[in-house]
UniProtKB/TrEMBL annotation:
It holds the Pfam family Aldedh. Gene3D superfamilies: Aldehyde Dehydrogenase, Chain A, domain 1, Aldehyde Dehydrogenase, Chain A, domain 2. Keywords: Oxidoreductase. This is Aldehyde dehydrogenase family protein. It comes from the Bacteria. The active site is at E252. Residues 19-477 form the Aldehyde dehydrogenase domain. It comes from Aliiroseovarius salicola.
Length: 483
């Protein structure tokens, strides 16, 4: 590999760009001959330095005027917007989603920074009458402190944006570890924050493996709060470690999201909703529809239409404009997906699609898959696959559809396609999920409203929108007696 130190992307610690303990090349999952860059993995000592810098920078940033914080976030938003094609191209190359999806995600990151530029100047409290005479009670929101952030590879700029923007808006300082598979978009975001003038130590980037760099952040006594998005197993262990250190914690994890198709659904809407929700972004969305629960009367016609349209999807290089489905993010993830395809078959489902596809330069391509005739008891219908695979489960009526849809350890997103107001209303009320969609895909959410789930999918308060303040601020109740 013809790489020089000059191309290496460094960590940002205390306002300085620094080499790490080792430099690791990152490859394009669609084309293994494409080396996107060489990224510096931070050492544990560097994590300690980043936490120290974040603590040192905290008092000044927490007391900076809201206008200063707002201006910074606005500048970051403007720069991301201006460079969205360039950033989107790196994102598509490192993660594998299509260029259109990658540019769309980048624009969404910019919108998130712009939204929190506004929120920074809207931090409000309460003046509450005391039960005692001549006593005033003020309830104010203050920053939580140093926030450690650990993010996954599947939304490598939007998820960091929806953690970093509110953290900075509310006066916190940040130590951020992006996913090892997708450091490129995170590094560009760090460059933009630095260029926009984020004070030294207020924002720190430490790249590297979760087991080392991520764990060092979670275990560090100088970190006050942890926000994590990723898998359930990693999240479970992290929760124990964070609780041991008495840290505030927010976690968004997996899903096995149901999409109910009722007999009275509009067929075009049902098919396009499932194509998008189950297979776009290669199914690599925690909000992806992975259990399609179909009422008996529409089942066969729906399956026939969906199979035809799924098989017509163009799988290929994300940089080709004709591509609708890019590669799986890594060989490990691809092998996991293929294992679930075999499992579904062995459990008795009829598998349509799902095979590995050979393309130039040994990319990790897989045909989207439907597991027809699945039951909700099959492991392939219960465990998160995180790939372009959906179980198709036939049910008799609305009550069975609702019961199957809630019969899962997860509770992130759910949906129903129906033309009945009664079913739509009942589903919205009784679905055990944090986000419920009617005639819309389970994935693809707005950037300014709460995001998060229930049961095994989430822990702690919501991300995004004004609800993010719950995590990124702590409430102080101040009493005063004028004498
Ligand atoms: N609910 C939600 O909002 C979302 C949930 N997800 C979930 O994320 C998963 C896919 O993402 P994936 O990146 O594979 O998830 P992982 O849980 O494997 O990794 C997530 C992040 O945690 C890091 N990490 C791993 N081990 C540790 C550790 N011991 N201590 C601290 N950090 C650690 C990873 O580092 P490393 O760089 O080494 O991988 C990565 O940065 C899916 O299960 C998906 O459902 C994804 C997006 C959104
Ligand atoms: O569905 C979305 O828009 C975002 C969901 C997300 O963050 C994810 O799937 O990882």
């Amino acid at each position: 590999m013809n790489m020089t130190r000059a191309t290496m992307k460094q960590n940002l610690i205390a306002g300085e760009w620094l080499d790490g303990a080792e430099a690791v090349p990152n490859l394009n999952p669609a084309d293994l001959s494409d080396v996107i860059g060489e990224y510096a993995h931070a050492s544990v000592e560097q994590v300690n330095d980043a936490v120290a810098a974040a603590n040192a920078a905290l008092p000044a940033w927490a007391n900076a005027s809201p206008q200063v914080r707002s201006d910074l976030l606005e500048a970051v938003a403007a720069e991301i917007f201006a460079r969205k094609d360039e950033i989107g191209t790196i994102l598509a190359r490192e993660e594998g989603k299509t260029l259109a999806e990658a540019i769309g995600e980048t624009a969404r990151a910019a919108q998130i920074f712009r939204f929190f530029a506004g929120e920074a100047i809207r931090v409000a409290g309460d003046a509450i009458a005391s039960v005692r005479p001549d006593v005033d009670v003020d309830v104010v929101r203050e920053p939580v402190g140093v926030v450690g952030m650990i993010t996954p590879w599947n939304f490598p700029i939007a998820i960091p944006a929806w953690k970093i923007a509110p953290a900075l808006a509310y006066g916190n300082t940040v130590v951020f570890k992006p996913a090892d598979l997708t450091p490129g978009s995170a590094h560009l975001l760090a460059e933009i924050l630095h260029k926009a003038g984020v004070p030294a130590g207020v924002f720190n980037l430490v790249m590297g493996r979760g087991s080392l760099v991520g764990q060092a952040i979670v275990d560090h006594p100088g970190v006050n709060a942890i926000t994590f998005t990723g898998s359930v197993p990693v999240g479970r262990n992290m929760a124990v470690d964070a609780a041991r250190g008495m840290k505030k914690l927010q976690m968004e994890m997996g899903g096995k999201n149901p999409m109910v198709i009722m007999d009275d659904a509009e067929m075009d809407i049902a098919v396009s909703t499932v194509l998008n929700g189950a297979f776009f972004s290669t199914g690599q969305r925690c909000t992806a529809s992975s259990r399609i629960i179909v009422q008996a009367g529409i089942h066969d016609a729906f399956v026939e239409r969906l199979a035809a349209e799924m098989q017509a999807l163009t799988v290929g290089n994300p940089l080709d404009v004709a591509t609708q489905i890019g590669p799986v993010v890594s060989e490990g993830q691809l092998n996991g997906n293929l294992g679930y395809v075999d499992l579904a078959r062995s459990e008795g489902a009829e598998v349509i699609g799902g095979e590995r596809l050979n393309r130039d330069n040994e990319g990790f391509f897989q045909a989207p898959a439907m597991f027809v005739g699945a039951t909700n008891q099959m492991r392939s219908s219960r465990e998160e696959i995180f790939g372009p695979c959906a179980s198709i489960i036939k049910v008799a009526d609305f009550d069975e559809a609702l019961s199957v849809s809630n019969d899962t350890e997860f509770g992130l997103s759910s949906g129903i396609c129906t033309s009945s107001l009664k079913y739509a209303r009942e589903f919205k009320r009784r679905s055990q999920a944090g986000m419920v969609m009617v005639n819309l895909p389970t994935a693809g959410v707005d950037y300014h409203v709460p995001f998060g789930g229930r049961k095994g999918s989430s822990y702690g308060s919501r991300e995004q929108g004004r609800y993010a303040a719950e995590f990124y601020t702590t409430v102080k109740t101040a009493y005063s007696f004028a004498g």
